[in-house]
Amino acid sequence: MKANARERFVDLAEKRVGKALKDIKLISNLSNRSNYDYKQEDVTKIMKALKKALDDCKLRFEQGGKEEDEVFKL
């Protein structure tokens, strides 16, 4: 059972982290000022939300606890 749980973890971790990295790259594409208009305040909110999500993820691994999902809005 544990080997199976390990295999599931590795499989899902690779898929989910890969997707998250791709999505972060897509977020960085929003920095193109010739296509998008944004304020520094918007960038700060985005970076703060991403940092909080990473901090929450780290805490959940350290403590094994669950957090409620938050919806991001500018």
Element layout with pairings:
Blueprint: H1 2-28, H2 40-63
Brief summary:
This protein is mostly helical. It has two helices and no strands.
Q: What is the chains' assembly state?
A: single chain
Question: Could you say which overall geometry the principal axes of the C-alpha atoms support?
Answer: elongated
Structural class: mainly alpha
| Helix-strand topology string | HH
Q: Give unreliable regions as ranges.
A: none
Determine the mean pLDDT: 91
- Beta content comes to under 5%
Bin the helical content: 55-70%
Strands, total number: 0
Q: Which value, in Å, is the CA radius of gyration? A: 16 Å
Counting structural domains, the number is: 2
How many helices? Answer: 2
Written overview of the protein:
The chain has helices spanning 2-28, 40-63. It is mostly helical and 74 residues long. It has two domains: 1-36; 38-74.
Question: What features would you highlight for this structure?
Answer:
mainly alpha, 74 residues, 0% strand, 69% helix, 2 helices
